[in-house]
Amino acid sequence: xxxxxxxxxxxxxxxxxxxxxxxxxxxxxxxxxxxxxxxxxxxxxxxxxxxxxxxxxxxxxxxxxxxxxxxxxxxxxxxxxxxxxxxxxxxxxxxxxxxxxxxxxxxxxxx
Amino acid sequence: xxxxxxxxxxxxxxxxxxxxxxxxxxxxxxxxxxxxxxxxxxxxxxxxxxxxxxxxxxxxxxxxxxxxxxxxxxxxxxxxxxxxxxxxxxxxxxxxxxxxxxxxxxxxxxxxxx
Lengths: 111, 114
What we know:
The complex is a heterodimer of chains A (about 110) and B (about 110).
Chain A: E1 4-7, E2 10-13, E3 19-25, E4 32-38, E5 42-51, E6 54-57, E7 64-70, E8 73-78, E9 87-94, E10 100-102, E11 106-110
Parallel strand pairs in A: 2-11
Antiparallel strand pairs in A: 1-3, 3-8, 4-5, 4-9, 5-6, 7-8, 9-10, 9-11
Chain B: E1 4-7, E2 10-14, E3 19-25, E4 33-38, E5 45-50, E6 56-59, E7 62-67, E8 72-77, E9 86-92, E10 103-104, E11 108-113
Parallel strand pairs in B: 2-11
Antiparallel strand pairs in B: 1-3, 3-8, 4-5, 4-9, 6-7, 7-8, 9-10, 9-11
């Protein structure tokens, strides 16, 4: 699992509430990523980070923000959750080469 | 815009047979092509990856074939086993600058029958 943990693993929340998902790594990798997985779409990049306080947008960044104040933690925030953000969220880290390793995922349901 | 097209959507193969999954890409800046295997309830696991400087890469029963001129690459699973039943995703990225952002195909559900 490349030393990646995600929390929470499951969450149900109501429309309009803020939600923060956490990704934690133990191996001091510089690059970290947030993807969402939806049926028929594969995985799509939301945001990524290339260092502490260095982040950039991905393909589906609208409605999401991220923060990285420490190398080991990458947070994904939904400022005001919507039903379209119901999904499975995966964090990934980039290893020593170009490979990316994924965490176990967080299943988020917005009612 | 779907930059990586994957087919078939689902595949049933007999035990011992060859499973073949195909992907095509549009962005000529892509130069890293991994395949991931995902079991239900788990995160995607890196299976094998290729760069465009070679046309084929083999690791155990898994082989990637790469055709740069056609902008296509495929995964071959030899001697398919029931334990290979999973969803497989191809992906692509450009490794020079831009953070190695992966663009994924939509996935292939493989079922290997006894």
